[in-house]
Specification:
Elements: H1 4-16, E1 20-24, H2 30-36, E2 47-50, H3 54-61, H4 65-71, H5 76-90, E3 94-100, E4 115-122, E5 125-132, H6 137-156
Parallel strand pairs: 1-2, 1-3
Antiparallel strand pairs: 3-4, 4-5
Helix pairs in contact: 1-6, 2-6
Amino acid sequence: MTPIHEERLREIMQARGLTLATAESCTGGLVADRITNISGSSEYFPGGVVAYAYEAKVNLLGVTWDTLNAHGAVSAETVLEMAHGVRKIFNTDIGISVSGIAGPTGGLPEKPVGTTWLGLVTGSGEWTRHFVWDGDRLLNKHYSSEAALEFVVDYLEGKLA
């Protein structure tokens, strides 16, 4: 598999001198793994946090219990708090987060298996994206990691309103 988004991310991040941190739940570090597969990524990627459980989201990333109780871990509100938190921890220009239901269990009628939210926070704004993937667990994790990288590249290329 050609790492198209990873290479483009490296090009832009290095050219602009920007930094990025990741906050991951359902992907378990896959986004960070893909970023660090590219030589030179340490110049713009200081690190990430895998916060799978509610307690980890609260204790490590500063997600509030109020948000989790009101909206759940798989929500726009939670991924924005995750992205804000990881950006603060690593003092980066960009924070990207992902939370979802990879499957095959864990789905609900209003949040079926495959439901995934991404959050992107920068000094100039915050955005979310929502998906419902239809793969198995590993494929859903891959789709989510791909979407997260594409989200950051879209931001860097000025494609977000």
